[in-house]
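Practice problem: predict the structure.
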Amino acid sequence: MDLNVAREEAGKRLDIFLGAHAKGLSRARIQQLIRSGAVHVNNSPSKPSYKVREGDHVVFSTPPPPQLLEEITPEKVPFDILFEDHSLLVLSKPPGVVVHPAPGHTRATLVHGLLNHCKDLSGIGGTLRPGIVHRLDKDTSGVMVVAKTDAAHQDLARQFKEGQIKKEYHALVHGVPKAVCGSIELPIGRHPKKRKEMAVTSSSGRPAITEWKKIREYGGYFSLLSVHIKTGRTHQIRVHLSYMGHPVAGDPVYGYGKNWWKGRRFSPQKIALGPVGRQMLHARRLGFHHPVSKAYMTFEVEYPQDMQDLLKRLEILERA
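Answer:
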């Protein structure tokens, strides 16, 4: 796409300017492409926040998707179905499963498993994300809702945008917060140096609100928190809790990582917890209005086995 900025378009942000010309691409996708270098202004890379000027020459090249839907071969992928009808499907995603195809993850994603289970998924998410209304990180477990029709997708997306969908996560974190509960209201944006990571940043961040409440303490070393997010920024819970000084246990990016557990022992009895291979973050509950019946529905899923085992070991630590 080769564009020249007209007088009436001058002063707009680059991502907004492109959004008016690149039909079918979300603003988030356009921002991602700008940051990846797919957009040049006057022969130079730019930023989403750049204010275009009259006469600017904008070249926008959209990289082809790694796969098309018809090229995605359905595969059997582990997940448990909690509810299903003609409009939607509610499932429990296990840890270790990527939600949709992306560079480096072209097989065995949740989408592959959904296509193996049923063919009638909404197309609004595009060729790589059929039915996907929201996501969980690869190593985050828990409840998700998937749209089977475009009408259901649009209604669920609206509920997410308007904050009507209630999401509760449980997170095992390092340390013990002093307060019983709290709220973190700090903007989150792309890390200024590590482009694959997010960070609390005031310069390019978007508003993010995370509310937490302490469920249980474990020997003064760890705490189990109930977490609600009022916004849906990438890695929001992991970033906010890490910034608070209580990163999610096992988080390899924003926490102490996987090697931290090697050889560590706790309490006077020197209890070993063993390795923790992923972040202990679980989408415990999800509540929403059914797109057709409008009935309010709530779903809850138990912790996956690895998280159950770790919490049992922590109970032993607490009694020691």
